[in-house]
Write a structure and sequence with these properties.
Length: 564
C-alpha cells in the first residue's frame, strides 16, 4: 500500500491530501517520471519549501512519497524484495531539489549504491516548475574510478530513452560480469569484512581464521575486505565510502551476506543492514551458529541455546507500543507490557529453565566424576586451539572413531575414553571443546559445566598445531583462557602436533627448542615418547597426592592423640 512518510510535521490537512493524491497516481513504466507527475511534484515541493521524493516501482506504481527537509530527503527502510541473487531492487527514486543549479549529491550516490536502486533521478526546479532531470545509475565495471554513470540532463517532457529497457540491460550486464560459480539456493554467499585498528599482519591472520570459520559453517566466501582505521566508526564500524564499495561488490558477485570479524553492537547491525540491504552477522553469531549445528548431546544443545538467547537478548531493541496490551481493573488501566517486554520476559524465563536443566546435567556429570575418583583413576584432558588435532589424537591413542575433521569446531561435545599406558597404568582421557581467540564470553559461561571436566584433570595435554604459521599466538590464546579459568596450576604438557607437515629443518629446530613433545596424531609410531612423558608426569602427580594424603592422615592421628 502506498503511503506518505518523512517530515510531515506542521503540514496542513489540504497539503496532506495533495500528497495522498500524488501517492495514488501512476507513472508510465517506460518514463522515469511523467510530465504531469513532475509538475505536481514541483508545485508541492515549492509550496512546502521541502524536498519531495517518490519511490516508483518498475510497473509505474508509486510505492512511497517521501517528504524531506529543505536540503535533503531520507529514504525509509525498504522491504527485502527484488534484491535476491544480486539483482537491482526494482525501485527508482525521483526527488526534487530547491536549488536551480543543484545536481546529484554524494548522498544520492550513497543511497543509489547501498539500496541497489534501479535509478536515482534529481529534478531541479525553476520558478516553481520542473526544469531538468539529472539521472544516475550503477554500472558493472568502474569507469574513471567511478561505479556509476550519469545521463545527460533532460526535461521531463522530452524523455527519449526507455526506462525499463535501460534497467533490464544494466541487470544483464551485472549478470554477465559476475564470476561463474555454482549457485546453491540454500547456501550463503558472503563477503568477509574486517575493520581493525591493529597492524595489517594481525588483521590478515584474523581474516584467515574467519575464512576457516565460514568454511566450517558451510558459507561460500566470495571476497575479503580489510580496512584499517584510527578508530572504528560508531555507527557503521567502517567508513561510508568503503561501505558503498562493499555493496557494489556484493551486487557484482551475487553476495547475500556480510560477515564481520568484529563483534557488532545492535545499533551497528541495524545501521549496516538498513544501508546495505544485506544480511549482516558478526563473528560471535557465526561461532554460535557453528556450535548449534555441531551439538549432538542434550547438554551441548542446552548450552548452545542458552548462549544464543543471551546473545539475542540485548539485540531486541525494536519498540512497538501499538502492540501494547490494555488491562482493566483498579490500578491496572493503561498500557500493559509491550511486545518487546513480552519477548524479553519469555527469553529470560527460558534462560532460567535452561539454567536449571544444565544444573541437573552438571550434577549427573559430577556424580560420574565422583565414582571415577573413588576408583582413583587418573584423568588426562586434551586442551588446545580449535582444529589442532585433539580428536584425531584421542582416536589414535584409544583406537576410537570419534568424529574428527579438518574444520574449526568439528568436535563440540566432550568425550572420554580409557587408555592404558605402556607400564600397566590405566587413565581416563577426555577431549574437550577447542578454544579460539576472542571466544564469546557468553559461550564460555554456557560451557561451564563441560569445562568442569578440566578441573578434575591430573594432567592437561596442550595440543598445538605447529604446522600453522600462527601457532605461537594460538598457544598464547589457550594459555590466557586456561589462566582465566584458573586452570594454570594443573600440570600441562605441550604436544607439538602435525610435525609431519614441517620441513626437516623446522622439525630439527623444534626438537632442539624443548618446548614439548613432537608427534603426528595420524601416525601411532610417533606417540610413544608422548605416552612415556605423560606417564612420568602422572606418576609424579600421584606420588605427590599420596604423600599429601599420608601427611593429612598423620596430622589427623596426632590431633586425635592430643585430644585423648
Amino acid at each position: 500500500m502506498t503511503k506518505v512518510t518523512g517530515n510531515t510535521h506542521g503540514l496542513k490537512p489540504k497539503q496532506l491530501r495533495d500528497l495522498d493524491r500524488l501517492a495514488q497516481r501512476k507513472c508510465v513504466p517506460e518514463e522515469i517520471v511523467g510530465r504531469e507527475i513532475a509538475r505536481s511534484l514541483a508545485t508541492l515541493s515549492t509550496e512546502l519549501n521541502r524536498q519531495i521524493g517518490l519511490l516508483v516501482h518498475r510497473s509505474g506504481r508509486i510505492e512511497t512519497v517521501i517528504v524531506g527537509d529543505y536540503d535533503r530527503i531520507t529514504i525509509p527502510a525498504l522491504a527485502h524484495v527484488g534484491t535476491s541473487g544480486g539483482r537491482l531492487r526494482g525501485l527508482r527514486c525521483v526527488h526534487t531539489v530547491l536549488h536551480a543549479n543543484a545536481a546529484v549529491s554524494e548522498e544520492d550516490i550513497m543511497d543509489l549504491a547501498c539500496l541497489r536502486l534501479d535509478l536515482m533521478a534529481v529534478l531541479t526546479l525553476r520558478d516553481g516548475l520542473p526544469d531538468l532531470l539529472h539521472v544516475v545509475h550503477l554500472i558493472p565495471q568502474q569507469v574513471n574510478g567511478r561505479d556509476w554513470s550519469t545521463l545527460e540532463p533532460f526535461h521531463p517532457a522530452n524523455q527519449q530513452l526507455s526506462c525499463i529497457e535501460l534497467i533490464e540491460a544494466l541487470e544483464e550486464e551485472f549478470v554477465r560480469a559476475r564470476p561463474v560459480h555454482e549457485v546453491d539456493q540454500g547456501k550463503d554467499r558472503a563477503i568477509l569484512v574486517s575493520v581493525t585498528t591493529s597492524s595489517r599482519a594481525e588483521a590478515e591472520d584474523a581474516m584467515t581464521e574467519l575464512v576457516e570459520l565460514a568454511r566450517s559453517a558451510g558459507v561460500e566466501v566470495l571476497a575479503q575486505v580489510i580496512q584499517r582505521r584510527k578508530q572504528l566508526h560508531p555507527r557503521f564500524i567502517l567508513g561510508r565510502g568503503k561501505l558503498m564499495e562493499i555493496v557494489l561488490m556484493s551486487l557484482r558477485l551475487g553476495a547475500n551476506l556480510l560477515l564481520f570479524d568484529q563483534e557488532l553492537s545492535p545499533s551497528q547491525i541495524r545501521s549496516v543492514t538498513d544501508h546495505t540491504d544485506l544480511r549482516v552477522i558478526d563473528r560471535t553469531q557465526l561461532i554460535l551458529d557453528i556450535f548449534a549445528s555441531r551439538a549432538r548431546s542434550r547438554e551441548g544443545k542446552l548450552q548452545i541455546e542458552m548462549a544464543q538467547l543471551k546473545y539475542m537478548l540485548p539485540k531486541l531493541t525494536t519498540r512497538d507500543d501499538a502492540l501494547s496490551r490494555l488491562t482493566g481493573g483498579i490500578g491496572a488501566r493503561g498500557p500493559g507490557e509491550t511486545r518487546l517486554e513480552v519477548d524479553k520476559r519469555r527469553i529470560n524465563d527460558r534462560i532460567s529453565r535452561l539454567n536449571k536443566e544444565l544444573k541437573a546435567v552438571g550434577d549427573q556429570r559430577y556424580y560420574r566424576r565422583t565414582r571415577r575418583r573413588k576408583r582413583d583413576v587418573p584423568v588426562i584432558s586434551l586442551v588446545g586451539y580449535t582444529n589442532a588435532g585433539k580428536s584425531t589424537l584421542l582416536n589414535t591413542l584409544t583406537k576410537s572413531e570419534i568424529h574428527a575433521e579438518d574444520q574449526l569446531f568439528a568436535t563440540l561435545d566432550p568425550t572420554s575414553r580409557r587408555l592404558r599406558f605402556p607400564q600397566d597404568m590405566e587413565v581416563i582421557i577426555t577431549d574437550t571443546v577447542g578454544f579460539i581467540r576472542h571466544l564469546p564470553a557468553d559461550l564460555l559461561k554456557a560451557f561451564e559445566s563441560t569445562l568442569e571436566e578440566l578441573f578434575e584433570a591430573d594432567l592437561l595435554l596442550h595440543v598445538i598445531d605447529v604446522a600453522n604459521p600462527s601457532w605461537r599466538q594460538q598457544v598464547t590464546v589457550v594459555e590466557r583462557i586456561l589462566a582465566d579459568l584458573e586452570l594454570d596450576d594443573i600440570p600441562c604438557l605441550k604436544v607439538l602436533n602435525k610435525t609431519d607437515r614441517l620441513s626437516p629443518e623446522d622439525r630439527l629446530q623444534l626438537s632442539l627448542s624443548e618446548e614439548g613433545v613432537g608427534i603426528s596424531a595420524l601416525h601411532p609410531d610417533t606417540l610413544e615418547p608422548l605416552l612415556l612423558r605423560a606417564q612420568e608426569i602422572l606418576q609424579g602427580v600421584l606420588q605427590k597426592r599420596g604423600a599429601m594424603v599420608w601427611d593429612q592422615s598423620e596430622l589427623l592421628q596426632e590431633e586425635e592423640g592430643s585430644e585423648g
